[in-house]
Amino acid sequence: MLFAVGGVSGLNLQITPNGSRTWLLRVTIGGKRREIGLGGFPEVTLAQARDRAREAKDQIRRGIDPIEERKAARAALMAAQRRGITFADATDKYLAAKLDAFKNAKHRQQWQNTLQTYAMPELGAMLVHEITVRDVLRVLEPIWRSKTETASRLRGRIEAVLSWATVAGHRTGDNPARWAGNLKELLPAAAKVAKQRNHPAVQIDDAPRWFADLRKRDGIGARALELAALTATRSQEVRGAVWDEIDLEAGLWIIPAVRMKMEREHRVPLTPEAVSLLEALPRLKDNPLVFPAPRGGQMSDMTLSAAMKRLHAADIASGGPGFTDRVSKRPAVPHGLRSTFRDWVAERTHFPGDMAEVALAHKVGNAVEASYRRGDMVEKRRAMMTAWAEHLEGRLKSKPLDHKGSRES
């Protein structure tokens, strides 16, 4: 049944026997009576239906057949879809094909999140064979200076997806996300625009006072921060630690490759101080985490950061200078403890720098790493970490023995 609704001549509301309602415009095009669907009610309101009807009539007056134009647009879309795939689909197919290449689920998730946040709004719906250099620049330029590291990684990921699309036959020609001889000429080098900001670190001479204040504080966050300080490990490595990784009798913590930034197993010698700390911790039934959050999951990074902030604020409140970085004067943060340790090794000990780099799980030469991963080198690193613990506790009165057994005169 058709009901004229007024407002535009020929506009009707069609009600079918099953009760569905649609807008219908009856017009004459080239001498033929035609009916043009304008959408269903209530998705399309009366006001919207009238606007669409007026637009269709305006097209007819200009010699355009709205029905044929719709058919042509639909045919063009279908042809385009047959010619290729969208960037979003190409990303999904690339990730599926490369699933085994991702060492862990976190890496895969980082890939997806970066592309979803920055690339998909501009490129997601585009067919891969239509993406140009200008399209890639539209994604990168807004964050190239403010989030340089992220933008650089994003560029590489876009390049990888488009490379896959080329090999899979969905596009031809140069890769518009390629750096050399391409985007390099249009964007400043990442190294020149990146603002390297070191993490604020507790000063070497302040470390014993900071550590003493830390030990006075209760809470699982304070204990996690204490272990991070004693082992010079990263926050995420401490927060994700499980009891199966730790051998208290041998004084050894073996962090698997899947949890390491460099994706290599890392062996951490545990000093007597670290072992005592771990032995005193409660173990929750059916929870393997060493430092679980109150609700049972993994502790957040903010827990350690908040503990650092409270230590700084409490020291100032008691008349002290707080715990600030020597250069930037900013309050120290958990990750800065690794810098404190590295500076201590360099300035106050004779331990080799390579040994400190291995302790920090930094990338070093393969030969060096192979050497320091042997059992005896783990024990020499244990001596270094023991001296570090003594410094934190304020018990180290002179420069510690180096790896050859000599002291500074």
From TrEMBL:
Signal peptide: none annotated. Residues 85-166 form the Core-binding (CB) domain. Keywords: DNA integration, DNA recombination, DNA-binding. The keyword DNA-binding applies. InterPro entries: CB, DNA_brk_join_enz, Integrase-like_cat_sf, Integrase_catalytic, Integrase_DNA-bd_sf, Integrase_DNA_bind_dom, Integrase_recombinase_N, Phage_int_M. Coiled coil: none annotated. Belongs to the 'phage' integrase family. This is Putative P4-family integrase. It comes from Salipiger bermudensis (strain DSM 26914 / JCM 13377 / KCTC 12554 / HTCC2601).
